[in-house]
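writing this on my phone so excuse typos. first protein, seq and then structure
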Amino acid sequence: VINVDHGKRYRFRIIGLSCSPGYNFTIDGHNMTIIEVDGTETLPVMVDSLPVLPGQRYSVVVHADKHIDNYWVSALSSLRNQNAILRYNGAPDEDPTSTGGPYVMPFNEARLASLQHIPVPGFPEIGKADVSLNLVAGFSTSDRLFMFNNVSYQDPPTPVLLQMLSGAQHPSDLLPKGSVYELPLNNVIEITLPNTGEATGGPHPIHLHGHNFAVVRVAGNS
């Protein structure tokens, strides 16, 4: 149960602590204003439902300005439904009778923009980066392995950093073959992830530890 006072605004930090399932986060009768995504503050975007994929993080602001009552807070999962209760102080201690929807403001990633002016490195146009990588996700049905560019990750016999310290200087020398991409220092790198439909399983976001991306084109947009 999440207790709230009528008239106040509340910041919810929503974290996708899952490996496989995604969740659709809603609060019956309430809109949510996105103000932060994955540690980056954004211009406000109002939604009434929010898909949360594995590892994703959002901050939303909810205005508790509805009738004093109980409202279902739902994270409908691709595996199993989860519910909580948004309870206004002064409401009875009982389950909500609220119903969700209709949802008319679904979340659209293309609407996100940084709150602070963060310039895109280089030229934010397709093919204008110093280095362009095309990573095509796939799945081997015979081996039951996920792949990028027809290469599946395998634990190296020795950690890659130790391989470099021992004298391997080029990605072609590193094991496993095809799993290491060498990026020149202080260059602008463009990564393209085409949706070919060949990768099985639910949606899963890409992330690069320690780095933020400047998204210049989203899926399905020319």
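second protein below, same order as before
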Amino acid sequence: LLFRLFPLREHGMNWHARPLTCQEIEAFKKSSDVMQRFERAYQLMLRFYGITLTNQKTGELKRAENWAERFQNLNRFSHNNLRITRILKCLGEMGYEDYQVQLVKFFLTETLVKETLPNVKRSALDYFLFTVRSKRKRRELVYYAWQHFKPQSSFVWAPRDKLLKYR
């Protein structure tokens, strides 16, 4: 089901699923019905993870009322991290790059600042961050992660000299 909701141009865990073509992605983007379904699927998955979309224009997110229970699930079952990576990649494919940035920042905040998702931290840094298509936004997120990573001297996701110069 997740593969149908969040298709990609690459093979996933199901080798029987056919990757999307660029032509299919463009056809999806031109269909308001498909895009509305995609947004509903995204919101459904967010609710499953204990997250609420608060602004459809910007992709801004917040914790849902059931966040504590859902975060326990995220911390307990690491297969969710693969699904989140897939969702992030699909958001980029479908033109929702702002949504990508907001979801990655949400997970960086929860893992590094609020420390509510310790078992998601590695995936957020190793995978989620690098799904962001915009180089500028990705750099901003890496800098944000570095600012909140403890200890900062152990941060390996960007060269220290570049982080020190970043503005």
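The radius of gyration is 16 Å. thats all i got for now
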